[in-house]
Amino acid sequence: MFSPRSEPGPVPRSVPAGPALVAPPGWPSQVRPPDAPDWEHTATNWLLDICPPEYREYPGLRRHPAILARFAVLHVEAGQAAVQRGLSEVRGLLRDIASHTEVAAAVDVWQYEGARLLATRRAVGLVEDALRGQRYAARMADRFADRVADAG
Question: What is the rounded CA–CA span in Å between residue 107 and residue 115?
Answer without folding.
Answer: 12
